[in-house]
Write a structure and sequence with these properties.
alpha/beta, globular, 5 strands
């Protein structure tokens, strides 16, 4: 039983769901959300307030202006895309406390939250309340 408890405690240290991220943003917690996809994908649609740093371009120089005290949350399209995982690894290696958004942009929208960009979607008012 203790091994299972440790497993789930560790898992929650490294991931966040859209409800918790939305609430953390709403409460103005110290979070920086990074879209780890390409610039083109970011322009099409992204989470409100997210900045775009493609995981392949994450370097000491490209992240030098980010607040080291902020929790970094990386995301990508969702299942089938691992840019958020690669981004989370890169940001962790660069010294940031990092979490990965479960389900990425896809689950953010499924949970009813708005997006920004050329193909933005309005909020649906449906929230999972996880």
């Amino acid at each position: 039983m203790e091994e299972q408890i440790r497993y789930y405690q560790q898992k929650l240290q490294y991931e966040i769901d859209s409800w918790d991220l939305f609430e953390s943003i709403r409460q103005k917690k110290a979070i920086t959300v990074i879209d780890a996809r390409s610039e083109e994908a970011y322009k099409r649609e992204h989470l409100p307030g997210a900045i775009n740093i493609p995981h392949r371009k994450m370097t000491k120089e490209s992240v030098q202006n980010l607040d080291q005290d902020h929790l970094i949350v990386t995301y990508c399209d969702g299942i089938g895309c691992n840019a958020s995982t690669k981004g989370a690894l890169n940001m962790t290696q660069l010294g940031f406390k990092t979490k990965e958004l479960l389900g990425g942009l896809d689950w953010w929208k499924r949970d009813g939250y708005e997006t920004q960009g050329e193909d933005r979607k309005g909020a649906t008012g449906i929230a999972c309340g996880c």
